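User: Here's a structure from my thesis project, written as structure tokens. My advisor, Dr. K., wants to see whether a designed sequence matches the one we expressed. Can you design one independently, without my sequence as a hint?
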């Protein structure tokens, strides 16, 4: 009698993907800490690997060198997590709620509420990027790309306000995007919060007040 064949072990691709995602999260978070602590030039792949508790080869497989790791760390900081960074911006819960809110005043207040957290998370990494971009063409391109990505998102937001008839007649969507871009810039957070000691609540309220009065008709302003 022939021996019965043993059933083949089922390959658990879901578990493998979960482990890979967890490892990548550790690497990106570790890279962010090392970049902020040491700066771009002094941060090394072996140092990042040690911080993440993985092999150097694993770090190399997770991103395209240090520039790729810095980009991943910046995107994760903006999104509020490595996994969240893989979700399209308009599909992230906080942004989706802003898009779906019908009241333009509440929309601008809700957008203002996202800014203190974003700049407190990503600001230190962007300062690393700014310092390194002065002598690195790859990082300069990354900085430009991130700025263009941010402005494009604000242009879509401004276009949404315009399509709903929410903007002042003398403020077209392109101008509105520029105003939001400037009012909500990192420089404002650094000046008000870091330099002058404003609380996050005070900074958020100022953004909301400023955007409402700059973008909405007077009878819509609070």
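Assistant: Designed independently from the structure alone:
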């Amino acid at each position: 009698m022939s021996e019965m064949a043993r059933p083949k072990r089922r390959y658990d691709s879901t578990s493998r993907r979960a482990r890979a995602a967890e490892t990548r999260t550790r690497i990106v978070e570790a890279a962010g800490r090392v970049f902020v602590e040491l700066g771009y030039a002094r941060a090394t792949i072996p140092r990042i690997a040690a911080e993440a508790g993985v092999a150097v080869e694993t770090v190399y497989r997770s991103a395209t060198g240090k520039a790729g790791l810095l980009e991943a760390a910046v995107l994760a900081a903006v999104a509020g997590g490595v996994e969240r960074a893989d979700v399209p911006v308009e599909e992230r819960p906080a942004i989706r709620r802003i898009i779906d809110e019908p009241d333009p005043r509440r929309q601008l207040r809700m957008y203002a509420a996202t800014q203190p957290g974003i700049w407190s998370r990503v600001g230190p990494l962007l300062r690393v990027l700014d310092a390194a971009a002065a002598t690195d063409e790859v990082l300069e391109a990354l900085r430009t790309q991130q700025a263009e990505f941010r402005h494009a998102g604000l242009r879509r937001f401004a276009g949404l306000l315009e399509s709903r008839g929410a903007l002042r007649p003398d403020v077209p969507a392109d101008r509105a995007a520029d105003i939001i871009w400037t009012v909500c810039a990192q420089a404002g957070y650094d000046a008000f919060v870091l330099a002058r000691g404003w609380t996050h609540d005070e900074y958020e309220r100022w953004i909301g007040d400023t955007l409402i009065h700059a973008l909405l008709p007077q009878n819509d302003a609070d």
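When you compare it with your expressed construct, this may help: Confidence is low (pLDDT under 50) at residues 1-5.
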